[in-house]
Structure formats: C-alpha cells, structure tokens
Amino acid sequence: MSLSGKRILLIIGGGIAAYKCLDLIRRLRERGAKVRCVMTKGAQEFVTPLSIGALSADHVFTELFDRQDEHDVGHIRLSREADLVVVAPATADLMAKMANGHADDLASTVLMATNKPVLIAPAMNPAMWNHAATRRNRATLTSDGIHFVGPGRGEMAESGEAGEGRMAEPLEIVAAVGALLDTARKPLAGKTIIVTSGPTHEPIDPVRYIANRSSGKQGHAIAAALAKLGAAVRLISGPVTIADPAGVMVTRVETARQMLAAVEASLPADAGVFVAAVADWRTEGESGQKIKKEPGQGAPALQMVENPDILATIGHHAKRPKVVVGFAAETQNVVENARKKLDKKGADLIVANDVSHDSGINPSGVMGGDRNAVRIVTREGVEDWPELSKDETATRLAEMIAARLG
Ligand SMILES: Cc1cc2nc3c(=O)[nH]c(=O)nc-3n(C[C@H](O)[C@H](O)[C@H](O)COP(=O)(O)O)c2cc1C
C-alpha cells in the first residue's frame, strides 16, 4: 500500500504504548507519507521529542503557547495541513477531552480545530477502557464520526494484567490509515462475492492424497482484486502455500466435498468465482489406516468415484448468485470446451486457459506460474486477453464482474 504524498498529523498521547509510535512513524514514512508530530506533556514522559523528531524528520510540536511555532505554523494550520489526524496512543484522558470539547493544550486544541478525518488508536489498562466514563466517551466519539483502530486484547505492561486495551500494532494502524485515505473507486461496495482457489486434496489414506498443480495464485489474486473494488469477499481455499490476500475472509478446506459445503454455507452471494482446481474424482472408500506395502501383494487398486461439481451445483442452485464465473483449465479445444461448459454448468462467463505445456507461457507454465493468457467465453462471444500477470488478469476480471453486477 502506498501513502505517497499523504500528510499525517500524528498526535502522541501519554501512555506506555507511546514507544510503538517510533515504529509507526517509520512504517508510515516508508510508504511515502509525510508525518508531522504533536506530543502531549504526558507523551514526553515516555518518549523524547528528539527521537520522534529524528524519525519524522520534522519539527515536533509540543506547546500551545509557543510564540515561534505559533508564528511559523500555528495550531490552526497544523490541524488543517494534513490529510488525516492520527491519535496514537489515544489515552483515556485524550479521549475524554475529545468527547467533551476541551482545548487546553496543543493536542486537544488541534483536535478541536481540525476539519480532517481523525483516527484514534486507544491504549489503556482494561479497567480504564471498560470504565463507565470511557464507555460514554467511546459512544460520543463514535457518533462524532471519529474512527477507531483497536484496541486489541492481550498482556498489559503492568505485570499480571491482561484484557482489552492494548494499542493496535503499528502495521494495523498503517492499514487503517490506508483504508481511510483510499479514495479509489469502489464499484463493488455492498456486494458479497464467493471465490474458490487452489487445489483440493483427495485422501487415499491418512498420509497419501491425490492433488493437482494449482498454486492458488490466480484465485487469491482475484479475491484481492474484488476486495480492492469494495466487495466483501469470502475466499474458500484448498491447501496452498501462499499468503492470505488482505481484507478477505478465508475458509480453508481440503477436499472437494468440504469446498462445496463451505461454498453453500456462504450463500447467498451476489457473485461466485470458481477458480479452484477441484479434483473431478476421489478414491472410493478412503482407508482409515495407512495402506501397508506388503511383500508379494503388488500395488493396491484405487477405485475412483466422481466428486460433486461445485460450479454446476451453484450454477443451478436455488440461491444461485447473479453472476457465476467458472474457470476451465483445458489442454485442447479450449474455446469449444468452454462454450459447452457455459450451459452445462449454468455459468455466465467461463475463463478458459490453456494449461498444456505448449501454451507458450514459460518458464513455469500457467499452473503454479505467475502469468496467464485467458479467453473470456460468454454467450455473447469470445474475448482473447493478451498474456498478463495473474494480478493483471484478476484486475480485469474484477472490473468485468463489477460491470455485470451493475
Ligand atoms: C507509567 C504510566 C503509564 C500510563 N499508561 C497509560 C496508558 O497506557 N493509557 C492511558 O490512558 N493512560 C496512561 N497513563 C496515564 C496518563 O499518562 C495520564 O492520564 C496523562 O494525564 C495523560 O496525558 P495526555 O492524555 O495528555 O497524554 C499512564 C501513566 C503512567 C505513569
């Protein structure tokens, strides 16, 4: 996430978590943000203006009645020359001042004078966080439009104390800052979309299974691209070794039958994008014990049975999403097979890709690789996309789904 050119006014309160601000400033700046800091008197008991100034590479503001600062910048300009005001740690005291409109030091005066969004990261002992006064202040601040990040649960600085009140970690605060400053178009806001990704594993016995080469890269990229356009994404993933995409709800499954159950449990949805390489067959009568290699007995014969067809089940489901997208990995007659799938599976759109070794995509091929060249097959026709990275393919497809959902 880039915060390039964004101006953050960071107000540091007098809590033990003030030390985390040193890292927060670094994290914001390495993403391109300009960070200017105001410290309360209390904050200066925990970290020094010297280290805050060194990390922010700017003057640190501490006094309301400072003739020089007031002449150079002034508390009003300070409050306005930012895209976002962040209060971290937001102490019980600062929250109380904000909720009641106090303006008796630089931090509280700037917070009263600002016309920019304000994000607070509360940090305090659980007893303070749950105190009736703080609860009232929380409600007031929420109804005043103040944004919160955290607090989380965990160990307190005071030994032996634990509970809710720990300040959000710097990277969580950075993510909240990014979300608040993200003014990008969100055509999928309010839409729920199911995405399946990765392979399935079909067990033979407790240690062996049948799998395929799907890495989950394309499905995960699509989930991320849909989330970026504002969709609430439920990603149902088979076993993969890649990281969860940011901002999506992930359910992990192993087998095709588990994947179908997870998809059905996620209905209703506005769209379903079925990218997972679901095994067509599983072994009948999975052995509960590891099959032993016995001398003279030869190899066991595996009897295969068909797995449920997730795309076709959802394509003809009573709760069918408005838009159903299927993926067809083919090694021959790619378009012809994709066309047949449209009706058979009840899909609106098939993303057909040639996963044969002579697909021309090297060095790793489509499955497991980072690039893809797909054909979009709909009832209206066929669209050939050039070879793109899986992220670019995902972005284009997300836009196409957004257009279909209107
Ligand atoms: C060691 C120590 C740790 C403190 N930690 C917190 C804290 O985590 N959260 C909090 O709300 N107050 C904490 N306080 C109390 C605040 O420092 C105190 O309320 C102060 O007036 C807050 O000033 P400010 O809100 O202007 O920064 C702590 C006090 C001490 C002495």
TrEMBL record:
Residues spanning the membrane: none
Indicate the segments forming the Flavoprotein domain, all copies. Answer: 6-177
Q: What is its EC number?
A: 4.1.1.36, 6.3.2.5
Transport as UniProt keyword: no
How is the cofactor bound, as the UniProt entry phrases it? Binds 1 FMN per subunit.
Q: Which GO terms describe its molecular function?
A: phosphopantothenate--cysteine ligase activity; phosphopantothenoylcysteine decarboxylase activity
Q: What is the lineage of its organism?
A: Bacteria, Pseudomonadati, Pseudomonadota, Alphaproteobacteria, Hyphomicrobiales
**Which cofactor(s) does the record list?**
FMN; Mg(2+)
In its UniProt entry, what is this protein called?
Answer: Coenzyme A biosynthesis bifunctional protein CoaBC
Catalyzed reactions:
(R)-4'-phosphopantothenate + L-cysteine + CTP = N-[(R)-4-phosphopantothenoyl]-L-cysteine + CMP + diphosphate + H(+); N-[(R)-4-phosphopantothenoyl]-L-cysteine + H(+) = (R)-4'-phosphopantetheine + CO2
Stated role: Catalyzes two steps in the biosynthesis of coenzyme A. In the first step cysteine is conjugated to 4'-phosphopantothenate to form 4-phosphopantothenoylcysteine, in the latter compound is decarboxylated to form 4'-phosphopantotheine. Catalyzes two sequential steps in the biosynthesis of coenzyme A. In the first step cysteine is conjugated to 4'-phosphopantothenate to form 4-phosphopantothenoylcysteine. In the second step the latter compound is decarboxylated to form 4'-phosphopantotheine.
The pathway that the record names for this protein is: Cofactor biosynthesis; coenzyme A biosynthesis; CoA from (R)-pantothenate: step 2/5; Cofactor biosynthesis; coenzyme A biosynthesis; CoA from (R)-pantothenate: step 3/5
Signal peptide bounds? none
Return the annotated region ranges for Phosphopantothenate--cysteine ligase.
193-406
Q: Which InterPro entries match?
A: CoaB-like_sf, CoaBC, DNA/pantothenate-metab_flavo_C, Flavin_trans-like, Flavoprotein
> Which residues are recorded as binding CTP?
D280, K290, P308, D309, I310, L311, F327, K341, K345
Protein origin, superkingdom: Bacteria
What Pfam families does this protein's entry cite?
DFP (PF04127), Flavoprotein (PF02441)
What residue stretches are annotated with the DNA/pantothenate metabolism flavoprotein C-terminal domain?
188-403
Q: What family does this belong to?
A: In the N-terminal section; belongs to the HFCD (homo-oligomeric flavin containing Cys decarboxylase) superfamily. In the C-terminal section; belongs to the PPC synthetase family.
Question: Mind listing the UniProt keywords for this protein, alphabetically?
Answer: Decarboxylase, Flavoprotein, FMN, Ligase, Lyase, Magnesium, Metal-binding, Multifunctional enzyme
Locate the region Phosphopantothenoylcysteine decarboxylase. 1-192
What gene is this protein a product of? coaBC
